[in-house]
Amino acid sequence: MMAGFSGIGRIARAGLLLSGTIATGVAVAQTVRDDASVPSAPLNVPANPQFFGKTEPNVYKATARVNGEVITATDVDQRLALVLLANQGSKIPDEEKQRLRVQVLRNLIDETLQIQEAKAAEVEVKAEEVNQRYAGVAQNFKRTPQQMSEFLKSNGSSERSIKRQIEGELAWNRVLGRKITPFVNVAQEEVQSIIDRLNATKGSAEYHMGEIYLSSTPETLNETAANAQRIMEQIQQGGSFAAYARQFSEASTAAVGGDLGWLRAEQLPGPLAEASQRMTVGQVAGPIQVPGGISILVKIDQRQVLTADPRDAVMSLKQVAISFPKGSTQAQATPQVEKFAAATRTISGCGTVQATAAQFGAEVVDNDQVKVRDLPPQLQDILLKLQIGQATPPFGSLEEGVRVLVLCGRDDPQVAGGPSFDAIMAQLEEERINRRARRYLRDLRRDAVVDYQ
């Protein structure tokens, strides 16, 4: 038996990183390195450097000591397991796991530096706060904290690993709240300028984009592009875009899974602007060369500025679902699916749904608050063309069952309003905080004593 609209949820949901449920703030598009505004002097590097002593660039260290605090191989393994969980069981080659392991170690070093800085600033994160956040993560997975701990353990991770990540995020946010946020200012004129531009561009296309940004130099461009291509392949095979953004992206938006938020094409660098206009919702594009590096894009959604979007309609739906005995083959299921499809095509209103379902022993589930935008793109297009009382074509699988959606009602959206003055100001402030936070962390790395074991 299938509960609720769980099948739709599995189709619709994007890759989930465990820690994504505890991230705070909204990032703003910034396809530039955070240190781009920092003056730098050219390095005197010879064209053909000669190394002294044995070099083994492909041998990576598994552990590290950060200002005297040890990061063990177990710490790395358990955090890597969280990343693998985020990829929803998709197969990841051993070579890719090695690259992920290296990135996880780097992230653990940053996390350790952040927690150490919080302690130095006498910023306290109480155990009960961490436990509360952990309970929230467990709830998102429909588990109790105890069940979540057992789930993590069975997948090679641990309660301790995710709680450490929660502690790091809470501690770092409080450090930023004390040392950076109070000194970030946004003028009212800046906000009003954005509102004026939104009003002037009413009806133009606006995209909700995600980005993974990898910096490079002219000398390392080919290597960076190859790395981006490997990431692309993993995402296309079912890997979580958000998980890879958190691990690999060098923009401040990495903290929110690469989410750039809503923006117009002209707000992006030329190559990304062109790609965003060609992409369909859900598509991943890249590697794309941009100033200073390589980007990978995903189009999460799109809409028109200050214009009512049909996909914001709220629908009342009935889901009619049939299931198959375990071990059924495609040949065995096909005749039943064909009969089911023929019967649902004759549905002439929601009042006849129960009778049709009874013919097949099907389960009927009602949901009166389904926003079209929250459904998979394929279903969005179909539902928007349906008349009240009509059903979609059957969809699903042998494992999850086959179902149709019957449209019982629809509330069309009103003309969309623009973001409020306060929302725009908060977004600008968040952008500036993120950039300063990256510089702050860079300074901590520069001053740290890190001994790789």
TrEMBL record:
<keyword id="KW-0413">Isomerase</keyword>
<dbReference type="Pfam" id="PF00639">
    <property type="entry name" value="Rotamase"/>
</dbReference>
<dbReference type="InterPro" id="IPR050280">
    <property type="entry name" value="OMP_Chaperone_SurA"/>
</dbReference>
<dbReference type="InterPro" id="IPR000297">
    <property type="entry name" value="PPIase_PpiC"/>
</dbReference>
<dbReference type="InterPro" id="IPR015391">
    <property type="entry name" value="SurA_N"/>
</dbReference>
<dbReference type="InterPro" id="IPR046357">
    <property type="entry name" value="PPIase_dom_sf"/>
</dbReference>
<feature type="domain" description="PpiC">
    <location>
        <begin position="204"/>
        <end position="301"/>
    </location>
</feature>
<protein>
    <recommendedName>
        <fullName>Parvulin-like PPIase</fullName>
    </recommendedName>
</protein>
<keyword id="KW-0143">Chaperone</keyword>
<keyword id="KW-0697">Rotamase</keyword>
<dbReference type="Pfam" id="PF09312">
    <property type="entry name" value="SurA_N"/>
</dbReference>
<keyword id="KW-0732">Signal</keyword>
<keyword id="KW-0574">Periplasm</keyword>
<dbReference type="GO" id="GO:0003755">
    <property type="term" value="F:peptidyl-prolyl cis-trans isomerase activity"/>
</dbReference>
<dbReference type="InterPro" id="IPR027304">
    <property type="entry name" value="Trigger_fact/SurA_dom_sf"/>
</dbReference>
